[in-house]
Amino acid sequence: MSPPAPVGVRVWSDGKTKDSKQSMLSSFVSFATLTLYSGWLHVLLALFIGSFFSRVVLAILIAIVSTVLLPPKPILWYAEPSPTIH
Q1: Is residue 85 domain-resident?
Q2: 46 lies in a domain?
Q3: Separation CA 4–CA 82 (nearest Å)
Q4: How confident is the model at residue 83 (pLDDT cuts 50, 70, 90)?
Q5: Cα(42)–Cα(64) distance, integer angstroms
Q6: What is the Cα 71 distance to its own chain's centre?
Q7: 48 partner at 20 to 30 Å CA-CA among 11, 42, 61, 71?
Q8: Range of the domain at 52
Q9: Has this prediction a pTM greater than 0.70?
Q10: Is 51 exposed, middle or buried (0-12, 13-18, 19+ CB in 10 A)?
Q11: How far, in Å, CA of 80 to CA of 59, rounded?
């Protein structure tokens, strides 16, 4: 077991250092997923506006919106009511 780090010194538990950087592929994937996650409504709005001008965009928008019609995932078990809550 290594000795504890002094107070106020950052410790990297995975062996990285302050000079370690992500790969370009990892950075691109994280940027793309964060953009889609945080900007999803803007993407849908852009597809909606674009659907007036392109049938391909309209087909993509219909495919995305039609997923709402899919049945929900079945519940495999039901939660038991808590005996302390009445």
Answers
A1: no
A2: yes
A3: 44
A4: low
A5: 14
A6: 22
A7: 71
A8: 37-66
A9: no
A10: middle
A11: 43
